[in-house]
Structure formats: structure tokens, C-alpha cells
From TrEMBL:
Name of the protein this chain belongs to: Amidinotransferase
Ranges annotated as spanning the membrane: none
Organism of derivation: Cohaesibacter gelatinilyticus
InterPro entries for this protein: Amdntrnsf_FN0238 (IPR014541)
Amino acid sequence: MSQPNMRPSIQAPAAVIMIRPHHFVVNEQTAADNAFQRTPASSDQVARSAFDEVTKMAGDLQKAGITVHLFEDEGKETPDSVFPNNWFSTHAGGHVAIYPMKPENRRRERRSDIIDMLKHDYRVQDVIDYSGLEADGLFLEGTGAMVLDHIDRVAYAAKSDRTDPIILERFCTHFNYEPMAFDATDRNGNAIYHTNVLMCIATDFALIGLNCIKDPQRRQEVKDRLESSGRTIIDLSHDQIEQFAGNAIELQSPEGRVLALSQTAFDSLSDQQKEEIELSAKLLPLSIPTIEHAGGSVRCTLAGVHLLPRPQ
């Protein structure tokens, strides 16, 4: 009999899409509401470092048994293209969603060649495109705005300008999720811009900064909902959230499930937290310090493929 983490989990995709930027730079249009951003020094050096980090990260994931579809971005108009999880997501049953983005220069990240690859290599039944809602000032930035429990069908969402409740409800109706929205702030009282810096849901555990949810009743409701799904709660401190410990993603390899996270995030976890994670998923730290200057980490760089492959 196989070990539990060897069995495929709908929560943990076995394939991901990554974008390798050739002219990476921190996006000025997102700085206003992303407190995780830092401005590095030399842009040429930063671009080279980011290119190298994505190259090594893709190689490390492939060595771990994860299928990586690596696309190039040779343009200079899309500074955040390295974070594709914000503009599209894929779902069991052959469904794809395309999302409306708040920063204007992020809307250029949407690529037909990626959707075409998905249709060619995987079973895609339909593509639901919400991007037209940008004209109405309504935004829902994909699996940055929502952290999805694919097993219990819950969409957790921290309220922000990038997570509109109207589209959240519409998405949940189309894709059969229960919306669970809440207010979340960092230690300085700033609204957390994307839910996926606050929490990560894996098959058997959830990493979450419970202290970021200020309302005690809502905090308990979120905790109870996660625990009712049978998951172990691994509570993250404000320090750990700032080190991107919540910005992780569980993936399925032939040898078992792995938790992909940054080296920064890995270093912030306690020995006890690492032991709890490794009861069901092997930790896979990936070093992307330059990319983290842009306010996102490993989870943001990986768009999971929750689709069945077509026979080739």
C-alpha cells in the first residue's frame, strides 16, 4: 500500500506554469498597496539575477519530479510577469478562469499562447474570462486574491482593492466554491494585498497567519473551517508572514507531495513547524531573493495545472 502522500491529491498539482523574465524590475504601479515590495539597486543586475533565479528554480522543481512549463517574457512592459498565478487559474473538470487585474500594466501579462498550450496538452472544457470587468473597476487577482481549498471547495479571500466581493461571489458560483472573505492586516495595520501571502492550504495542513485576521470571531471561524476539513493548523507569526512563509504551494511528485517555498520562508520556520509539514510533504526550499523584492514569493511564481493531460 502506498504512503498517504504518494496518492494524488486534488489540492497538489503535478505540473506548473512559470514565466522567466528577461527584463525583471520591481513594478512601481503596485507599490502603493503592496507593503511586501522592496526596491533593489541596479536594474541590470536585478534583471540578470531574476532570470537566473527562475532558471534554477525551474530546474530544481523538475529534479523533484514536477512538470514545469516554462515560458519566456522578453518584453519590458510587464514587470510582474514572473507572477502568472494572478491572471489565470485551472480547475479539475477542465475549467480555466482568466482574471481582471487592478494595475494597468499587469493586464498585459495575459497570454494566448499559454491558454493555447493548456488546450493542446490538457483537457480544457471551457475558459471563463472575467477580465472585461476591469472596465467597471472590479478586480479579482486569481490565486493571489483567493487561496482555494480544492478538496472542501472553499475560496478564502482577504478583502482588498484586488479582491472584489462581487466577482468573488460570481467566481464561486461558476466554479462551485464557498466564499469565505475576511479582513486581514499586517503588523502595521495595512490591509494585506493578496491572500496567498497570508495562508497556504495543503492536503493535510494549512499555514496561516491567524493574527492577521483582526476580528476574533472571524478568525475563529476561519480556523474552525480549516480544522473541520481535517487539516493541522500551522500558525505563522507576523515575522514569518513577512518572510513569505505563507506564500508556499503543495505540489505532487512521483515520490510524494512536496511543499515548494522560498529559502527565506524555509529559514523562518521553526523546527517544530518543519516537522509538522514533513509528516505529509517534503520541504523544497527554492532561493529567489531578487524576485521577492517585487513583493511575491514562490507561490506567486507558480500557476498550478489542475487539469488532466491529453494523451500525446
